[in-house]
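Supplementary Methods, section 5.1.

A reviewer requested that the exact input to the structure prediction be made available. We therefore reproduce it here, unchanged from the version used in the analyses.
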Amino acid sequence: MMPAAGAISSVVVGLWLLNIVLDTGGQLAFKAAAGDEHAGDGFARWKHMAARPWLWLGIGCYVIEFLVWIAFLSLIPLSEGVLLGSINIVAIMLAGRFLFGEELTRLRVLGIALVTLGVAIVGIGG
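The structure derived from this sequence is encoded token-by-token as follows.
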């Protein structure tokens, strides 16, 4: 038996939000692992990163995100899911700004606004 339409909507929204959190968390963890100034070069860098929790946190986020993404796509059309998933770019850019001090140029801010607008249109239009 299929759940009521409202139940599907809340599950879809929940999976979508969880996907955003996991993808953003994974990217931020990878950035933290890769940006360690004490890591060295070449194989030593990879060995250093493998011994740090950030790399493993990022991998864990991506494994769980994969399962969440499959569940999300099982409930909505692929064309909508991919478009809704593009909001991850915005979350990652904003988090990068606040956590790593990365620059948000005018063009990047315009891109954030356009992606957000596109996701809102897809979300409203279904």
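DSSP finds six helices and no strands in the chain. These observations are discussed further in the main text.
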